[in-house]
User: Fold this.
Amino acid sequence: MSQGNIFKTMATMDRRVIYVLIFLLVLAPTLRPLGLPIAVSQSTITYYSYLQALDEDDMIWAAWETGFSAWNELKAGIIATYREVIKSGARMVVAFGTAEDIAVFRLVFGDPDEGIRGILTPELEQYGYEYGVDYVVLGYVLVNEASTSSLATDLHGVVTNDYKGRSLAGTFYDDLVNAGSFSLIIDFSPGMQTNAMIRHWVMDYGTPMIEGAIGVNIPSLSPYIDTGHLKAMLQSTRGCAELEYLGGVPGPGATSMDAFTLVHYLVVLFIIMGNIGYFGWEKNSKQQVRTAVG
Amino acid sequence: MASLLRRKETSLILIGISFFIVTGVYFFNIPSLNTFAGNLVLMVSVLNAMSILLALYSQTRRSLLLVRQKAKGWPFQLYLVITIYLMSSLGLIYGQSSSQFMWFQYAILNPTGSVIYSVLAFYMASACARAFRARSPQAAMLLISGIIVLMGQAPLTGVFAPFLGAAGTYLTSSFAMAASRVFTMSVTVGAVVLGVRIITGKESSAIGFEGG
Amino acid sequence: MVEFYEFSYTLVAILASWSMYATLYGKPSPFRSWAEASFIGFTMGLNLVVTFNYVLRTGWEPVSRGNWMPAVGILLGLLMILRLFPKYSYISRIPIAISLGTNLAISLRTTIFTGFINQIQATIVPFWIPGNLYQSILNTTISVSVVLMLTFFLYSTELKGPLKYTSKAGEYALYIALGAVFAQTFMGRLGLLSGYMQSILDPAWKIPYTFGFLVIVFAGILILDRYGLLEKYSD
Assistant:
């Protein structure tokens, strides 16, 4: 093969080859984990410190806004976070921001009424974390900015029963008034009501907020870390895996880090190879690579 | 009555009244005003949620039109309409927490909702190999920055080459954050300007009137 | 032993996911069309039910406690639907106007602080922090980059003199930022991909079904493509 052909091959790599390579590098480590080491970043350490500081006197506003797509990206962090919450004994009010979160929540916490076990049911049983006593679920109430704002000013004015229609009277919910009644907001979100909570919960009532952000949202939410509106941020799958590592219970995050590492290196290789091909062939050729996907 | 409702001034008065009721509570400490403003916001949250009915009507009408015309792919449009009403019926009959309702979420929404976004990873990787070219100094800087951050993000890099991890963190914490800050400020200024224009009646297209 | 409930939805989920991944083949296919129609239809049905419950709880239930105002939101929501009928669409301007005014009041008051004033405050930071070289470099980079990038976005004035050079520097800073943002975005999408792959490969009983459906779906696509039937049976 001549030198020009090598450069041409590098510049015009078949996209199907790229797709197959990515699939292989994601599937293979998932089936047979390599156990590659990971380093923990400061942002995750800061996030973890907020969870470590929780105790039985704390009241958490747990905003679940992931839906299924962000759940698959952040599940390691969600599981690790709420494991720490259960261990600490802090009480929790759960609110959903998308219609799918009822199903997502059920995957994690199960449904004791229907005898359905979730991922954290063993921890719930181990620490005696009970529905109605330690946590309540309001359901889909973070619908839009108006509802988020209403909840911040008057919880009971918006909702007085849980996601199954049962009255919350007689539970710890009676003692809660507004956003100021909470000691921490934990938000996992692809950005649905995050900005609204920053504006109406954090800014108006000073309630500290920590965030589990998907990769796409990290740049747009980083300024709020700098301004102090967000106290800590878990950065996508990698941050979730680091949190899992800090929590000491291996799970889906650790397994996905092998694929993470390999595909990242592969993509860097693609960029370098593509540019070698560009300078060696494409730049001087009349033929140009048309599109990335066609 | 109809002529009154058709006038632009009526809409502007309603916008102004609702705006000043909600903001007025921060200037006047009147308990009844506070309560009314809170209820107004709650009422609007319900009103906003009901906009889904518009989407339902539009989608149903479009799909049935394509079915009637026997346009290309019409069976899929018919299937789409059936699934909308099937899912709604299941949820209303058995309840939103029922196993029957959840089954379809786990079977259909979880995979399709996840895959539809994860496919972008493939397209981005393909773009890296086939489209990202250092054709200019600016493009070269973009690529170098991207490579450093990609390397830094790989968990293994922090173990054998911590300086790359630190460099990646520096680039995301400084340049990327600065760019996001600039975009945030620009969008905020734009939003405030648009809001003021709507309230003062200079931007009436938002309420369905043509021109300013 | 896996319950039939979990087994059944897992099988359909694996089929649906490979059908959606058929997008990568590059041509329309009936599998992809089915998956897309399912996604849109079931999502809309789900949102209808959940929103209906929200409207009942938040709009109707307060009436029993003597608060009738949220229920007016239901009436106004129904008026908004009149937008679809040209003869009566003018009536829909009432709920739209009320919603617009209220939402502007809710968001403008706070967004000025979180999105503008606080951002400026966070940009004006000391360039030199004794004993912390990294933070000093970070602060300097952020502050200088924000100013440079802002000059790049000045479109309403001719960029000459010093502005020309700061704008150029801002452009370079922006490209560096975009490279970093691209990497973060890719990380997010990759995380979603690997996370979802895990869910169809773990526990181990799912593995044969995952690969089986992969073969079935892509073999089906290849056969249909071979006989030129892909376009015919998709939308």
Observations:
- DSSP finds seven helices and no strands in chain C.
- Residues 162-199 of chain C form the longest helix (38 residues).
